[in-house]
Amino acid sequence: MLLYRLLEDNSYVRCLLIDFSKAFDVVDHGILVSKLSLCILQSISCFFTGITQQVKYATKLCAFQPINMGIVQSSGLGPTLYIVMESDLKTISKINILFKCADDNKLLVPEKNRY
Predict the structure, then answer these.
(1) What is the domain extent for residue 34?
(2) Is residue 115 within 8 Å of residue 109, measured between CB atoms?
(3) Structural domain tally of the chain?
């Protein structure tokens, strides 16, 4: 339909067809990770931008205040962001054992331990 509209005002229309069937075979991992990093960082920054909260006590309603800490737990992205935040949590001693599951962490420390 678009082609017919273009031909109404033009004597001919150039058409270039490009086949990317092998495109998946030549994706450079470094470039893709770089683009993903930038894209994800921008998306997450937008996720945190402009978040405010308001408190009501009895009948008094306070003004909206910006939130600069915390993650919305009920959001789809919240649990993943928390896992990233705590990903570097490790034990001091190699004989201690840490079980990580979202915000429920369990640390096992044997009786005979220097720490």
Answers:
(1) 2-108
(2) yes
(3) 1
